[in-house]
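Deviations from the work plan: none for this task. Representative record:
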Amino acid sequence: MQFLSYLINGISLGSVYALIALGYTMVYGIAKMLNFAHGDVIMIGSYVIFFAFGSFGLNPILSIVLSMVVCTILGVTLERVAYRPLREAPSLAVLITAIGVSYLLQQVAQLLWTSSPKSFQSVVGLAPISLFNGELTISGETIVTIVACVVIMVGLIWFVNHTPAGHAMLAVSEDRGAAQLMGVNVNATISLTFAIGSALAAVAGALLCSSYPTLQPTTGAMPGIKAFVAAVFGGIGSIPGAFLGGILLGIIENLSKAYISTQLSDAIVFLVLIIVLLVKPTGLLGKKVNVKV
Amino acid sequence: MKKFVSAMLAATMALSLAACGSTADTSSEASESTSTAASTDSTAAESGATGEAASGTPIKLGGIGPITGATAVYGTAVKNGEELAVNEINAAAGYTVFDWKFEDDEGDAEKALNAYNTLKDWDMQVLVGPVTSTPSLSVGAETVNDNMFMLTPSASAEDVANCGDNVFQMCFTDPNQGKVSADYIADNALGTKIGVIYDSSDAYSTGIYDAFTTEAEAKGLEIVTAEAFNSDNKSDLSTQLAKCSDAGADLVFLPIYYTEASQILVAANKSGYEPTFFGCDGMDGILAVEGFDTSLAENLMMLCPFSAYGEDETTKTFVSAYEEAYGSTPNQFAADAYDCVYAIYQCVQAGKINGDMSASEICDALKTEFTTMSFGGTTGENQTWDASGMISKAPKVYVIKNGAYELAA
């Protein structure tokens, strides 16, 4: 029973990683860049919800929608201002810019909202479920996070495979130049990718902070990096890969905390990552499944 | 766009002017000789050099602490406490006893060194700071080289006092907190099976944890599990808590700061686990976390040298003056800082130091004075320091009841 409880905690943490990783992987698959500012967009989204829901008492769903709108605008603006001018530049330049944007967002948040921590009120109203005579308790946040993650993943896969915009994304991902020659608007497609990725960041922020309530300007940074690891773990660019990678990372992290050592859990997670990459350099689902977005 | 930018710039300028204005107000209240904020330094120095025979040269008191950053609650409290004490002393003496300047370190060791150098350029003679342990260690090492007297209000790591014989502490050391916590828990039979959650990447937390473990063993307390987290991996603390619960701990000892503690309390509430939570002075500030449901902190116990609800005269005067000046209730960090300035003032009154002495001369005089004197303030009576710079004072344990600290029986 204990094992089950740790496992569920792990899946919950993993779903949050997976949600964030979906954003990373979408952008990487299509724009071929690592958007290191993704974690910080999550943080901004969480602050929007904190104030809309916590301070002004807006309906939780409306707060999340508002946060999605803000994040979408932020993400598209960032792409337009910081990344698009560098589209033809070496990928290293874009990477450094993304790190710069990440710090910029953190510092701006610190100026706007100070760095004193805020306690995030959960947006999930679901009561915890008690199983086996109360021996196993699953919190509402856990259930909502897992469900949201699966729904979003399925939705994304459907979107890229069955809509014209999705097909355009696949085309840009395959070969940007050829796609442009075939009449695909590359800039619009990449903007759309950033819009979707950032809207997902808002949802991820809501669920991340509902489960782990401390909100600070640096809140998005570490989960962002972990999610990036998850995306690489599962095979970056692959949507099911990001999902699988996120969930596995969460489970490994939590089980090593539970049964090996709370101190060494990070070391173990990264050790597993190294082993997987040695055996399969493209990640778990890197090449096998061709849902490259 | 350009218009917007210039409007922003104008607004910033107006704000900074307003800020200058208020600084000028406070300093002119404190001393007639300082007219504008911009020229505070030079006028203060001139007034010392040129006249006011009865008064003497002001002593330049520097403060360092996090005004921004994750530990801003502590730094702001220390800044306010120091400012209040300096203003009170200057007003009561009728002349500028202390010239005071405070620099932000964001709780970061490197930035603290920069702040220290800025203050040295300002000709600081005595340092009251830094606030947290890690910056204090780096600044402490520098003060030894400069022979600058350093009195930290709240950096409680044992290594801070061990930096050199010029470094003194106003708060308990970490080992002392760990030891006293274990004694208190054992003597009052608060718990039989004890779980600990600590931050393995933090000197404060591990310092208390180590001393607690040693003393708990000596007192026959059973530590059923000790779980760690670190600064890079603290978003999910529910597993650590679940392990305490599974190990059957009826008391969870939390030698950590209030940010993570508030998260643990939320997680405990979600999972329905209700042990006694016992923290140290890093827990102070938990009721001020924005958005935190303070009812979750009900019955939380903490070791803390000061309470704003204390009944003695010094505390009452301090609390009401602080509330009037800053509109909030002071925490122990403000009290420690307030005491620091008064402890140095006690040496001024005794005629041991004055503003005409060099920083190094003042340091030597204060070293002798601090190790021989006894000081009473808001954080305790008859406080003394040993040669290493550690303080000895009576600890107090508080419990949170109805959203306020109450002295535990």
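Chain B has a mean pLDDT of 83.
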